[in-house]
Amino acid sequence: MEIVARLRYRIGRMVILGPAYSDIDYNQSSGIYDLEKDGKKGLADASGRILIPAEYDELLKNNSWNNNIFPVLVKKGTWYYYLDRNGNPLPYKAAEINAY
Q1: Domain layout of the chain by residue ranges
Q2: 17 SS3 class
Q3: Which of 8, 18, 54, 77 has its CA 20 to 30 A from that of 33?
Q4: How far apart are the C-alpha atoms of 44 and 31, rounded to whole Å?
C-alpha cells in the first residue's frame, strides 16, 4: 500500500480511495481508514469500501476491545448516536455525551 499525491491510497495499481477526501488515515490494527471530507468524518475498510459516509460532525471509535471499533459514536447536528458496521443507527440517541 502506498500513499500518492492528492491523498489517493493505492494497493498495487488500484486506487482504493481518491482525492475527494481532505484527510485519510489508516489504522493498521483495525484495518479501517478514517476519512475526512469538508470537515465531516467517516470510515472505510481496507479495500476502500465506505462503511460510514463522511457526513458526521464527530466520530468516536470504540478502541477498548479486540480491535473491534464498532459500534461507533457519531454526532450529526445536535444529536449523538451509535452506528453499526453497516452504518445503520442503533435505537439510542442523546443531545450530549459523558464518556465513551
Answers
A1: 2-94
A2: strand
A3: 77
A4: 9
